[in-house]
Every structure is written in structure tokens, then in C-alpha cells.
Design a protein that fits this description.
The protein has about 120 residues and is mostly beta strands. It is about 0% helix and about 35% strand. A 3-stranded antiparallel β-sheet has the order 1-2-3, with no helix packed on it. It is globular and about 45 Å long. The protein starts with 15 loop residues before the first strand and ends with a strand.
Length: about 120
């Protein structure tokens, strides 16, 4: 069994996995287990990977793999929506892709909900 990471909030080593989340029983902090798909190299920049583990780069095209509700709107980004010319960013809340979706506009996506096209 692979060792689970320490809690990013309180550094507790007593974390456990529940579905797609990692949970700290000491401070009740929850974070995505998929955030492990975004790794850093000691010698280089951050590597962001899609849902299948393929590395992403600025300018790539990706396809959405899950219906995504847009916060504050009744609009939904449908499965199979192709997004061209992405830009990788250090966004808030785990959003690491900055893009513009036709018919919807500019937004940020999480790399765990896209696959490289």
C-alpha cells in the first residue's frame, strides 16, 4: 500500500482515503486525492497531468470528460466539449487550466476533469 501524504493544513500523518478525497481526522481538512496528478520536480517546473496521466502543456487541446456545472449559472459544460489553446496556471481551489470555451466564455478548469485531445 502506498503511503498517503501528510495533511497540507496541519501536517498530520494520520490521513485516510475516502473515495476521491483524502481526509485529516485531526483538523477535518479534505482535499482531492487527484491533486497527486499535479507533481513538482525538485529540478524543474510543476508538471500538470490530465485524467489519464498524460502531461499537459500550454496551447494543448483537451476534451471535458464529465458534465461540469458552472457556479452561479444554470449552464453546464457537457461531456465531450473540446477546449482549444489551454493555458496552465496556479489557480485557486485546484483549478490549474485557464481557457475560453466557445458559447460560454473564459473560465478555469481542473486537470482531473479533462483528457488530452
Amino acid at each position: 500500500m502506498a503511503a498517503l501524504p501528510n495533511c497540507p493544513k496541519c501536517s498530520s500523518e494520520h490521513t485516510y482515503e475516502d473515495s476521491a478525497l483524502l481526509i485529516c481526522p485531526e483538523c477535518a481538512h479534505e482535499w482531492s486525492a487527484m491533486s497527486a496528478t499535479s507533481t513538482t520536480d525538485d529540478n524543474g517546473p510543476r508538471i500538470i497531468k490530465d485524467a489519464n496521466g498524460n502531461p499537459l502543456a500550454d496551447g494543448d487541446s483537451v476534451t471535458v470528460i464529465k458534465d461540469l456545472k458552472i457556479k452561479g449559472s444554470s449552464t453546464v459544460v457537457k461531456v465531450g466539449t473540446k477546449v482549444r489553446n489551454i493555458r496552465l496556471v496556479d489557480g485557486s481551489g485546484g483549478h490549474d487550466i485557464d481557457c475560453k470555451i466557445d458559447g460560454i466564455g473564459p473560465m478555469q478548469l481542473k486537470s482531473e476533469f479533462v483528457k488530452k485531445a
